[in-house]
């Protein structure tokens, strides 16, 4: 059985809080956030295992998603490789952890979705949801998603997404639900600041699989942690 972090260790690794969103990448390179409930479970397991990695015991290395949502029973997240693995088919997908301020869209439980061809609603990646909320707050009705690597505009007046090349439109909607989990950033001894982005902090000494930034084709080798820096 995994050991829980001791109070003294929690004090040693005291750091500011953030909102954690876990996402998986589909075959087209698009990132999809897990639900707030599933993210809460993943984050709880992740933080516990990160604490163990810094001296509290052995790691389980994998997180069974069926524990949080029965419909995800075939899936597990393998932490060393940052992948989602489907046990019945062997399909593997990249996963990532994205931290946001508590006042962000994920922190308030706001999710923006677009209507797919089969009539189902698909959530935008968390960074897009947060960007759209920021633009709403500024009173902008037409928002270009090019800064985030997407060839679309979103019109708040008509609740539509338009492909800038083909002019094809889709419906979009804004949903309010439970907030994404608040987490405390854990760092090993000697590492200070809002968050440390070095490989030791992010991966516990293990190599990360790079993943592409949406719409750019660029590889990233670290977690996405907005406005946070390593002060080692």
Automatic annotation (TrEMBL):
Q: Which GO terms describe its biological process?
A: Notch signaling pathway; protein ubiquitination
The UniProt record lists the EC number as 2.3.2.27
Q: Which domain of life is it from?
A: Eukaryota
Give a Pfam family name. WWE
According to its UniProt record, which reaction does this protein catalyse? S-ubiquitinyl-[E2 ubiquitin-conjugating enzyme]-L-cysteine + [acceptor protein]-L-lysine = [E2 ubiquitin-conjugating enzyme]-L-cysteine + N(6)-ubiquitinyl-[acceptor protein]-L-lysine
Task: Identify the InterPro entries for this entry.
Answer: Deltex_fam, WWE-dom_subgr, WWE_dom, WWE_dom_sf
Which stretches make up the WWE domain? 8-97, 98-174
Compartments in which it is found: Cytoplasm
Q: Which UniProt keywords apply?
A: Cytoplasm, Metal-binding, Transferase, Zinc, Zinc-finger
> Which GO molecular function annotations are given, in alphabetical order?
ubiquitin protein ligase activity; zinc ion binding
Q: What is its main location?
A: cytoplasm
Please provide one cellular component term from the Gene Ontology annotations of this protein: cytoplasm
| Pathway the protein contributes to | Protein modification; protein ubiquitination
Q: Which PANTHER family match?
A: DELTEX-RELATED (PTHR12622)
User: Which protein family is named in the record?
Assistant: Belongs to the Deltex family.
* Name assigned to this protein: E3 ubiquitin-protein ligase
């Amino acid at each position: 059985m995994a050991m829980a972090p001791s109070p003294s260790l929690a004090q040693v690794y005291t750091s500011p809080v953030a909102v954690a969103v876990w996402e998986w990448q589909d075959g087209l390179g698009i990132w999809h956030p897990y639900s707030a409930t599933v993210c809460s479970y993943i984050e709880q397991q992740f933080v516990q295992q990160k604490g163990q990695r810094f001296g509290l015991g052995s790691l389980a290395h994998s997180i069974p998603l069926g524990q949080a949502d029965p419909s995800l029973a075939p899936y597990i997240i393998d932490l060393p490789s940052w992948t989602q693995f489907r046990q019945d088919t062997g399909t593997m997908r990249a996963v990532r952890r994205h931290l946001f301020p508590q006042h962000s869209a994920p922190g308030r439980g706001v999710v923006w979705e677009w209507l797919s061809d089969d009539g189902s609603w698909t959530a935008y990646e968390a960074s897009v949801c947060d960007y759209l909320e920021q633009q709403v707050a500024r009173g902008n009705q037409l928002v270009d998603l090019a800064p985030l690597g997407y060839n679309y505009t979103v019109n708040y007046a008509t609740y539509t997404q338009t492909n800038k090349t083909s002019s094809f439109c889709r419906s979009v909607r804004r949903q309010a639900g439970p907030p994404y989990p608040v987490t405390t950033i854990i760092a090993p001894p000697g590492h200070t600041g809002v968050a440390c982005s070095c490989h030791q902090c992010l991966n516990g000494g293990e190599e990360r699989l790079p993943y592409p930034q949406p719409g750019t084709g660029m590889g990233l080798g670290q977690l996405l942690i907005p406005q946070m820096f390593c002060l080692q």
